[in-house]
Amino acid sequence: MFAYILRRLWQMLPTMAGVVLLVFLLFNWVGGDPAYILAGKMSNPEAIANIRKQLGIDQPYPVQLWIFVKQIVSFDFGTAWSTGEPVSHILATRLGPSLTVLVPLTILETAFGIALALAVAFVRGSLTDRAVMVVCTIGMSISILVYIIVFQYELAYKLGLFPVQGWGEHFAENLLRYSTLPILIGLAVSIAPTLRLFRSFVLDEVNQDYVRTARAKGLSEGRVMWVHVLRNAAIPIITYVMSNLPALLIGAFLLERFFGIPGIGREVILAVERSDFPVIKAITVYVAAATMVFNLLTDLLYQAVDPRVQLK
Amino acid sequence: MRAWLAGMALLLALQGALAAPPKVLRYVIPAAETGFDPATARDLYSAHILQAVFDTLYTYDYLARPAALRPQAAAALPEIAADGRTYTIRLKHGILFTPDPAFGGRRRELSAADFVYSWKRLSDPRLASPHSWLFDGKIERFEVVDPYTLRIRLTHTDFNFGMVLAHEGTSAVAREVVERYGDAKGEVAGHPVGSGYYMLTDWVRGNRIVLTRNPWHLPEVWDFQPSADPDDQRIVAQMRGKAIPQIDRIEVAVMVEDQSRWLSFQSGETDLFWLDGPLAPKALVNGQLRPELARRGVQLSRQIDPETTWYYWNMEDPVLGGFSKERIALRRAIAMAHNVDEEIALVWNGQAQRLDYPIPPGVVGHDPNWRSINQYDPALANQLLDRYGYRKGRDGWRTTPDGKPLVIHYVSRAESNGVLQAEVWRKTYNALGIHMENERMIFADLLAAEKQCKVATRNGQWLADYPDGDNFMQLYYGPNTHQNNFGCYADPEYDRLYQASQQLPPGPQRAALYHKMTRRLEAMGAIKMGYARWRNMLAQPSVLGYKKHPILKQEWAWIDVDQSRLSK
Q: Are the Cβ atoms of A165 and B444 closer than 8 angstroms?
């Protein structure tokens, strides 16, 4: 086990190197030169050259790349070019609001997805099952923008059930007042594809021999589904949930923009708009690292859930 | 520290207002701020906060139109020598910076040396200030005569220099604050300490900015004189004699999405906001408030922004540039074929006013009677092209006089307005039989290309830094190529006239020069003036005394809120 973990950690290095190279090349190719924006309206070539020197982007590309590597190793990406705010402070302060929305959303999405998938699998092949699938297909065909605009207009503005937008100073206020509508929207958007996916996982197990055996032994359908089927369907469900966890680190762009949530997703969009490379670099590297770590955790969890799985 | 300041300020405000609850104004900005160092803040929305927190020597009279300078930290308008090169300025006594640990527990008075220190920061290469142009090449020396008197000696005559001293980039900061809180470059973006009407007491970056009234500000009374605008009488009646500022707390929220801003105002969560182009049809019909909003008591303050959008053709472009008769004819034909009113209707929902003159309304030097010689006339434009050898081929597309395909590369921004503008221009070029290709760029790339004279043609935009025509006529000045002369227009005759105009104060002589310069631009087909956009501000019924100022970023210090009429 220990050797397996070491090997996987070691394998992360070339992957991270690829990520670093890719983001560096992409930014320098399509990212835009921030010096012209930072120089302001009345800039001249000398001012722009000075800014490029201040930012270090007048250096040869290999030097800039080496600086990038050193920043990753030291966990210090410096300050944002557009605001002067330390990148570490940006990540530390913006992650909280994003997680305030996304963690409850993930928990609710998973719980509802599993429960509904089992319920629908219970009546598989029936009119109810087919109707639910049709509704899910329709729900998946609607853009998240439509959900946001309609929910914000109807539930927040027209009915006054939630604030139109905003973010408070306290966790409880943010969770219970300002995050409720964004979570509701996120749930409405994600429940359809999640339900369809989990249903397929469950149905894969329902026709297995062990299920027939359990029924033959006289177990109730509920026990068969919740105890036996769910346990085996849990592996792909775990894969799905764990693979989505790194996405928590990049926030929900649209929800944060529309509802004024000072999260990491909105910060990413700002950084791209401003060609703020230190912020883009830091977030890309952290998300890549988190993805690799969560993949490793997923594999380890496999073995915990299903002892038959062997990690080699 | 901010919490302590907020507490002290609130306590003092409450003491002064007996048992009255604090007056709060909720404002919204459509883009995130960047920081609050006057030397480095480069965006419009950070400038809102700078204007509230810091003092400049001068500001603008709230009601006067066109905009007129008014003393702020200065005791009076500057004493200008007859040669227009020496400015002597005396400060008010007793202006204090808000308390901060940087001052070691003592009261810190604003002095002339603070202004000189702040201005010199603009040319610090470490800060790479976007406002260095305010003084670059203009200053022979700054002189601190005494703690309340400073003298500025300019390198050349400039009767408009006072307006430079009203720009928020010239705000006074304290050396002690910079030394204590400055980063490695000496920038203090996150800890603004000023002497203005308000203090920053809460800040969640990119989300919320809270300002509290500065209780240590020198007492002032609202005493502006009404302009010719009849609505000023209402404002004067609501505000005259009141202490400045009336509002105790400003809560600024960042809302990027149009729907969020609109619904926030509609639901009463916002008191005052800018109704920009895409939202205008929701609230306005033919420039008037919709009846349902008017019935609710919503107020509209509307004015033409001191800005211009114009169309330029790069004088260094191999297809469009140069001063030959054929090229001049080509540019003038394109100018005559473009329907500006159609662009205004399609791209801006009618929220703009066509311009003929390069200086917009509300800016000193504007001529409302000017008429361009390149009026919309597509038939004449086609005849002009025929006459100068731009013949149509069998495929209907024109060629150059030497028979090569004539292709114009129109550059636009990649977002929706840019795409719309490009399509409007495609219609223009199609009407002429000229093949147009649209190149879309992100903003940073577009800026870079423009400053390198690599953009063949596009719409230029300029918002006034100060309300004087010079700020607009310099856009076509040859030595400003690779800066903000986007069309890279280098015309010795124009440059000569511009240099002569700089020696004159605003008046008939300078206006005559501006007329010649404008006619020159039109005759050479260097540019075509487009339009200036309407700025529509909506205010809740509870907001008193509001009128949008053409130059000031916000008017918070000069308005009031009627607590009894609050929506929420």
A: no
